[in-house]
Amino acid sequence: MKISQVIGPRTSEVVEIPDPIPREDEVLVEVVSSGVCASDLGPWLGHSPSAAPLRLGHEMVGRVVAVGSKARWWVPGDLVTGLGGHGFATLAVMDADAVLPVPPGVEPAHALGEPVACLEEALSRTGMRAGDRVAVVGLGFMGLSLVQLVRRHLPGLLVGVDPTPTRRDRALALGCDLAFAPGQIPERYRTATGRESEARLDLVIEATGVTPGLTTAGSLVRPFGTLCVVGYHHSGDALMDLELWYKAVTVVNGFCPDRTRTMAAMREALGLVAQRRFHYEPLITHHFGLEQVDEAFAAMLEAGDDFVKAVVVP
Question: pTM higher than 0.90, yes or no?
Answer without folding.
Answer: yes
